[in-house]
Amino acid sequence: MVSNRLNWPDHLDPRVKSFLKLNELVLKPYDALDLQHILRIRVEKALHEGAVEPGVIEKIAALASQDHGDARQAVGLLGKSAYLAEKAASKISLAIVDEAATELGRDRYLTLLRSAPIQLQAAMGAVIEAARRSKGMPVGTGEAYDAYKAFCDRTGLRSVTGRAFADLLAELDMYSLVRSRVLSRGRYGRTREILLDLSEELLQRMDSAIRMSFQTR
């Protein structure tokens, strides 16, 4: 039996666990040398000879091993780099790898947002609008909620309560779509500030994706 959950035996009946005679083996993530070996095989099979400049395989392997040790992610970065190099009619260079890594990061955010529940998309759209009005300053939850209710009025979406909206903000924070912090105002209680650390280009693409999502509903 193979599982990514370390606690899966905890849910087994004791008689089943005794019968299985468990001998656990925890597999380590790939390191940089493992990933280099995998990438070289892919390069030999999929790309023309000389299509990859020196140091590219090592760089992709190093990036992947630092982040996650996932061979699929490393091969995905190689594939994206090859696509960008083909468009530029050049070899896969270190600069192209950097560009591919940046694009993949943007793509992950957009894919996550497009697959998110419609209320979460509305909350993100409202935060983007409120952040633009604040011109780079942190946005309070009250401002964000007002922008959210206005967004719902325009799109015909049923708005949720302020408490439920705070849960949506917490979920956006968990996905790193926004960054929030709780500030104490003494006897006036506490407030949460919301910040957007994403690039303006990415925010524009996310805003367009949200608007498209509501137009096609």
What does this structure look like?
This protein has 217 residues and is mainly alpha-helical. The protein has nine helices and three strands. It has helices at 14-20, 32-46, 56-67, 71-88, 94-114, 118-134, 141-155, 162-174, 200-215; strands spanning 139-140, 179-184, 190-195. It has a three-stranded antiparallel sheet. Strand 2 and strand 3 (190-195) form a beta hairpin. Helix 6 (118-134) packs across helix 8. It starts with 13 loop residues before the first helix and ends with a helix.
Q: How is the topology of this model organized?
A:
Layout: H1 14-20, H2 32-46, H3 56-67, H4 71-88, H5 94-114, H6 118-134, E1 139-140, H7 141-155, H8 162-174, E2 179-184, E3 190-195, H9 200-215
Helix pairs in contact: 2-3, 2-4, 3-4, 4-5, 5-9, 6-7, 6-8, 6-9
Produce a short descriptive summary.
This protein has 217 residues and is mostly helical. It contains 9 helices and 3 strands, in the order H-H-H-H-H-H-E-H-H-E-E-H.
Element string (H = helix, E = strand): HHHHHHEHHEEH
Average of per-residue pLDDT values: 86
Oligomer: single chain
Q: What is the CATH superfamily classification of the largest domain?
A: Winged helix-like DNA-binding domain superfamily/Winged helix DNA-binding domain
CATH class term of the largest domain = Mainly Alpha
Measured distance between first and last alpha carbons: 42 Å
Estimate nothing, just give the exact number of structural domains: 2
Q: What ranges have pLDDT less than 50 throughout 5 or more consecutive residues?
A: none
Please state the second-level CATH architecture of the largest domain.
Answer: Orthogonal Bundle
Secondary structure tally, helices: 9
CATH topology of the largest domain: Arc Repressor Mutant, subunit A
From the alpha carbons, calculate the radius of gyration and give it in angstroms. Answer: 23 Å
Approximate strand percentage: 5-15%
Largest sheet geometry: 3 strands, antiparallel
What global shape is seen?
Answer: extended
